[in-house]
Design goal:
about 425 residues; Transcription Regulator spoIIAA; 4 domains; five-stranded mixed β-barrel; four-stranded parallel beta sheet; 14 helices; 19 strands; about 35% helix; binds S-adenosylmethionine; binds iron/sulfur cluster
């Protein structure tokens, strides 16, 4: 979501002639976009600010603005701590950015813009063309969260749930496709909670399915509680909807899920997975896990490991619980740090083994890859992703960017899978 926001901020600042540059030392304005989901977020901001100061030690100071969730959560503290920072702007206030930049050019004062003005923000985005021309693009359809999981800072930094207007979303999708996008990932903190004038996430997916030049649709991140029947059906009906679903579960223990306020049980989670597999037998899953949440005992942790073994998530993001200021869980008794680390290592080893097996099984299989770009350093090598978002590299003398091709998988490394392009006719005869 921050990547989408950063690109949109650039679309906005272009209106006052602030254009992106890759030459850091020549920038007139720095905008640092931040994430507050786990610890050390604020320290990272001050490190980045330190780097800017060093770069400009003997030159005219650039405008320096901190945006994103750290700005929202700790804006006044940041401004007080370092006078070098000109402004903090929260994630729902990007519509103010051009005015703030122009004001800073003339006035030497600090600005704290951290109101929740989501409707104004989306109004501005509506009238600002999305200039992204990537093969695979993000499109934010929903922001904020009303679920208040006890560990999570999002409801406090991104504010209440807000869904964008359906037609605006389709207009933005149309402009992305016109610019060359062939894959669109619909984004939201709770993307499947999308609801606007009786339109739901499934309506957006069905509408995108009809766009001729769009090849792939994805959505993230979903809450298991909001996997409604219409959305499950879309996984059966829509060929362009990719068969990989990121469905965060956080823990395999009902006791911990309840203490987190996740609003579902493991049995309900498994039922969603089961139904999705019935709709589309190709579907696979990725998930997020919080290890060593307050109150997690050995039995709870073992349940999480068991869940990993049962579902065999092909991708997972696991972190030790990080107490976020202002959240209810931050006041709960932490699991011993050494034990937490030990559990994380055990869990990640299980996850790695599952991933390795999955990759081994891909060898000599044919997968469908959408090619996104040419590799910069290597000649005739193209990078793309298969339907499960695995990064795949092939050799090709022809430019295959933006094309979906069949690839025979030959080998893999930690990060990448390598394959050979298959001649279409050969594939059909096989
Ligand atoms: N809305 C999504 C959901 O409910 O599943 C998740 C969005 S959250 C921004 C992304 C992930 O960050 C979560 O799934 C969780 O695993 C992780 N996360 C959030 N707060 C955390 C915390 N305090 N400590 C560790 N991980 C955290
Ligand atoms: Fe955070 Fe997701 Fe829970 Fe909302 S549903 S509070 S974004 S973890």
């Amino acid at each position: 979501m921050n990547e989408y926001d950063s690109n949109r901020i650039l679309d906005i600042t272009k209106k006052i002639n602030y254009l992106p540059t890759t030459k850091k030392s020549e920038a007139d304005c720095y905008i640092i976009n931040t994430c507050h989901i786990r610890e050390k977020a604020t320290e990272k901001v001050f490190h980045d600010v330190g780097r800017v100061k060093k770069e400009f030690r003997n030159k005219k100071k650039p405008i320096l603005i901190i945006v994103g969730c750290v700005a929202q959560a700790e804006g006044d503290l940041i401004l007080k701590k370092d006078r070098y920072i000109d402004a903090v702007i929260g994630p729902q206030s990007y519509q103010s950015i051009n005015k703030v930049i122009e004001d800073i050019e003339f006035k030497k004062k600090q600005y704290d813009i951290t109101n929740f003005e989501t409707i104004d923000k989306f109004d501005l985005l509506k009238s600002t063309i999305n200039c992204n021309s990537k093969i695979s693009s993000f499109l934010t359809i929903q922001e904020g969260c009303d679920k208040f999981c006890k560990f999570c800072v999002v409801p406090y930094t991104r504010g209440p749930e807000h869904s964008r207007n359906f037609d605006e979303i389709l207009d933005e999708a149309e402009s992305l496709i016109r610019n060359g996008s062939r894959e669109i990932t619909l984004l939201g903190q709770n993307v499947n909670a999308y609801q606007n004038n009786n339109k739901r996430l499934s309506d957006i997916i069905y509408a995108l399915e009809k766009k001729r030049d769009l090849k792939r649709i994805r959505y993230t991140t979903s809450h298991p509680k909001d996997m409604t029947n219409d959305l499950l059906d879309a996984h059966k009906d829509c060929e362009k909807l990719m068969p990989l679903l990121h469905l965060p579960v956080q823990s395999g223990s009902n006791k911990i899920l309840q203490s987190m306020n996740r609003k579902h049980t493991i049995q309900e989670y498994l039922e969603v997975i089961h139904k999705l597999k019935e709709k589309n037998s190709k579907i696979k899953f990725a998930s997020d896990f919080i290890i060593a949440y307050p109150g997690e005992e050995d039995d709870d942790f073992n349940e999480t490991c068991k869940l990993m073994e049962t579902i065999k998530f092909i991708n997972s993001y696991s972190f030790i619980f990080s107490p976020r200021p202002g959240t209810p869980a931050s006041e709960m008794k932490m699991v011993d740090a050494k034990l937490a680390k030990k559990r994380l290592i055990i869990f990640q080893n299980i996850a790695e083994k599952i991933k390795l097996n999955y990759k081994k099984n891909l060898l000599n299989q044919i997968v469908k890859v959408l090619f996104e770009n040419k590799m910069i350093k290597e000649k005739n090598k193209y990078f793309g992703r298969d339907e499960y978002q695995n990064p795949v590299v092939v050799n090709s003398k022809k430019n295959i960017i933006g094309q979906e091709k069949r690839v025979l998988i030959k080998k893999f490394s930690q990060q990448t899978i390598y394959g050979e392009l298959i001649d279409n006719n050969k594939f059909l005869a096989a």
